Amino acid sequence: MSTKIESPVNGHLWILTGPRGSGKTTLCRRLAAEAKSLGWDVAGIVSPAVFDGGDKTGIEALDLRSGESRLFARRPVDPDGGLSHRQRWVYDPIALAWGNQILSSAIPCDMLVVDELGPLELEAGQGWNAGLKALDSRAYQVALVTVRPELLAAARKRWPFAGAVDVESPESNLDAFEAQTTRKDLEAE
């Protein structure tokens, strides 16, 4: 699989894109851990999936500063007891407010992570709105934001200065991305 990496022209914002299950969240967690090991102030949210018996049943919000997490989205259950595919996700408004507070207080920081921005944020003006504002502020050394490929054009329109990484294979892309971008950003300070 090929890796397409484009360097940012102005600033240190990186858009990580790839389909579901491609490793965007895993990559964010690994880069955040590396930055923390270098003594950086790492802030923001990663959104790991929650599985039950092989089925994706929920999505957590994990605060990278405190390590605290909350379930912010769950797959509803049909009356027959199975997972509903008619309504994809039910969002917990209290957990979303908590996540937005985390993102509001994330900046300034050395590394900001917002995983993930989707149609709720980029098309409907809901969800992690504070993440959009934090990324727009550029009050960070390096920022990572994840979006699905179908929303890459909207993200590029909002942040034309950002670099982009197409994450197709987490292991091969991690090495290339770290070698060409983030490690240099982190060690430059």
Explain the layout of strands and helices.
Blueprint: E1 5-6, E2 13-17, H1 24-37, E3 42-46, E4 49-52, E5 55-63, E6 69-74, E7 90-91, H2 93-104, E8 109-114, H3 119-122, H4 129-137, E9 140-147, H5 152-158, E10 163-166, H6 170-188
Short description:
This protein has helices at residues 24-37, 93-104, 119-122, 129-137, 152-158, 170-188; strands at 5-6, 13-17, 42-46, 49-52, 55-63, 69-74, 90-91, 109-114, 140-147, 163-166. It is an alpha/beta fold and 189 residues long.
CATH architecture: 3-Layer(aba) Sandwich
The portion of residues assigned to helices is 25-40%
- Note the main sheet: 10 strands, mixed
- The top-level CATH class is Alpha Beta
Give me the CATH fold name: Rossmann fold
Overall mean confidence score, pLDDT = 82
Total number of distinct structural domains: 1
| Tally of DSSP helical segments | 6
Task: Supply the key terms.
single chain; 189 residues; alpha/beta; Rossmann fold; 6 helices
Structure description:
A hairpin with a 5-residue loop joins strand 5 (55-63) and strand 6 (69-74). 35% of the residues are buried. 34% of the residues lie in helices and 27% in strands. With 189 residues, it is α/β, with parallel strands linked by helices. The protein has one domain (5-188): Rossmann fold, CATH 3.40.50. Residues 1-11 and 169-173 have low confidence and may be disordered. The termini are far apart. Strands 1, 2, 3, 4, 5, 6, 7, 8, 9 and 10 form a 10-stranded mixed sheet that branches. The longest helix is centred in the last third of the chain and has 19 residues, at 170-188.
